[in-house]
Design goal:
Structural class: alpha/beta
Number of domains: 2
Distance between the termini: 47 Å
Number of strands: 12
Helix content: 40-55%
CATH topology of the largest domain: Rossmann fold
Largest sheet: 5 strands, parallel
CATH architecture of the largest domain: 3-Layer(aba) Sandwich
Strand order of the largest sheet: 2-1-3-4-5
Number of helices: 8
Order of helices and strands: EHEHEHEHEHEEEEHEHHEE
Shape: elongated
Oligomer: single chain
Radius of gyration: 18 Å
CATH superfamily of the largest domain: Response regulator
Strand content: 15-25%
Length: about 240
């Protein structure tokens, strides 16, 4: 099946160069110049697989668009492009629900690699067999993570998770009481080469704690193992 990517950028030359490369790589590509164009395109095309979006755009910028989409329950993977490229911008983007981040000018080959990695992780998380598996639900505390539906519930309330948050929580609930180091989590989630200073796992853990912990500063479920990584405790007890 052909991957359908939506490029959102107000710089026509940059957008057209990336569009040409992705088309040559066999992708279906749509283009929009701002948030209004993005909304129109998504309303007209229900088969979009991924969004590649510029951070700095007139009016509603990329972070505001991401926040709005996530609050509306839109879970399409988002790769953010920024000409600033600072660690602060990257962390803020991840906290808003961005799934990946690249500094501009981005190499089209690298953008394509990131697109493939994100979609591969998403596919691996949802389709392990040719026949639909029975619903797999992991309860912990007041929560239930339904892997088949890709939903987290607190009682009857649906807690909105980004793609990265869901995939990380799935790794945790499938390996309770096991200390998982950052390198292992990074290899499982990112699917491409990372640097020792990549903080995206820590950012994602912090976002998850804000959604599931009564006191995020004193986590009961996702606990830190100093010098190692993290351990998931479904009983919610300090250990």
């Amino acid at each position: 099946m052909t991957t359908h990517a939506l490029l959102v950028d107000d710089e026509p030359l940059i957008q057209k160069a990336l569009e040409y490369y992705l088309l040559q790589a066999g992708l279906q590509v749509g283009c929009a110049a701002d948030g209004v164009g993005l909304d129109t395109y998504l309303a007209q095309h229900q088969d979009v697989d991924i969004i590649v979006m510029d951070l700095s755009m007139p009016g509603e910028d990329g972070l505001a668009i991401t926040r709005r989409l996530r609050h509306a329950g839109q879970h399409l993977p988002i790769i953010m492009l920024s000409s600033f490229g600072s660690d602060v911008d990257k962390i803020i983007g991840l906290e808003m629900g961005v799934d990946d981040y690249l500094a501009k000018p981005a190499n089209p080959r690298e953008v394509l690699a990131r697109i493939k990695a994100l979609l591969r992780r998403q596919a691996n998380a949802t389709t392990h067999t040719t026949s639909p598996p029975p619903p797999t639900v992991y309860p912990f505390g007041a929560f239930k993570l339904n892997v088949q539906e890709r939903c987290l519930y607190k009682h009857e309330e649906n807690i909105i998770l980004t793609t990265a948050e869901f995939n990380l929580l799935k790794l945790f609930v499938e390996s309770p009481h096991q200390a998982l180091d950052r390198n292992h989590l990074m290899e499982q989630l990112k699917g491409y080469e990372h640097t020792p200073f990549d903080r995206s796992i820590d950012v994602c853990v912090r976002r998850l704690r804000q959604k599931i912990e009564a006191e995020p500063a004193k986590p009961q479920y996702i606990q830190t193992v100093w010098g190692k990584g993290y351990v998931f405790v479904p009983e919610g007890k300090r250990g």
